[in-house]
Amino acid sequence: MNLVKSIVKVLNRAHQIRGAGFIVADSYIITASHAIKAINEDFSEHIDIEYAYNNLLTKAKVEHIDSDLNIAVLIPDTIPDGVVPLELGESQNSQFQYFQSFGFTGTDRGFGIFTHGQVTGILDSSEDKDKFLQLKSENITVGFSGAPILNRKTNKVIGFVHAILKKDNYGRNTDVAFAIPSEIISKSFPKIKISRSTDKNIFISYSTKNSRVANDIDQELLAYGYDLLKDTREINYKDSIWEYIKKVRNVDFVLLILSNDFLQSPYCMFEVLEFLKDENYKERVLPVFLDDIKIFNPVEALKYVSYWEEKYSEFSSQLKLLDPVNVAPFYQDLKMYGSIKSTISEFLVYIRGTKLVGYEDLKSREFLPLFNEIEK
Fold this sequence. Notes:
The protein has 376 residues and is of the alpha+beta class. The chain is built from 12 helices and 17 strands. A 6-stranded antiparallel barrel has the order 1-2-3-6-5-4. Strands 7-8-9-12-11-10 form a 6-stranded antiparallel β-barrel. The protein has a 5-stranded parallel sheet with strand order 14-13-15-16-17, with helices on both faces. β1 and β2 (17-24) form a beta hairpin. α7 crosses α10 (331-352) and α9 (298-320) runs antiparallel to α10. It is elongated, with a radius of gyration of 27 Å. The mean pLDDT is 90.
């Protein structure tokens, strides 16, 4: 998305920049009321604006002012071709998510700058007007007042820049800013609606020996707003592990962190068995491989088939030495081992014939292959 095509400069009578604004549906411009008040004390006059992408100068009517919440809504006299309206999205689950913005660094009418950062917290109280998004970004400055906070995953605005925190006596807080959340904007001016969406949910399947990688991917996807099922959050003390594993069939995607340990883990392979039951499993699987996995050479891949045949035989032999009455519940485990040894070949053939991405490569590309597959 070219964010510049959604941005306007809010100008004073001398055509100096007092802030930024952005176009939303129905031809409204959202900005900060303090930027308007600095130009027009009683909000009675049209104000000058300039579109950032083509420098078209025009005027805008002040349609709505909420000084308590620092919200202003304008209606421009002219909207040129090429302007891209932005959508408001939900901010309530935006903590730790990444954003992009575009604003200005001074009062002159030169080029603006992009910035990016992270929502580090949501400051809330009993009164809605006291709710803010706390932001971390190096480049937000006074010319960003009213600039949109665009969620990088949803491409929807979750708020606009409201204030920046001044550096303290110790030289700290130089990259802290605050934003008015989208819900507050919509409540103040109900004609501007929030586009509601449900996030896709993802089941992370991994060996506990690869927990570091799983945690890295988990945190990255959470930061972009996805709903992730991960055992460390979903399984509580005394909960059934097997019932949790069965949830793998009820999610949009299954992220497999494939490793040598994964292919030799009964828990991981039971998760594989569960999602292989669905005819459309190939559309839902997101495989990521670690360097220790040896499946691309067919001889190496067959070692995993051999491994599970040996495990099945070993377990079966042990059971035969014991009274069947005493070990009857363990035959369910034997059945699972049998299912794994008879299914793993099909799974390996599918994985070997699929274009995969390694974890290190995925990380170097900022996880974009994953996001593109989820959102396509």
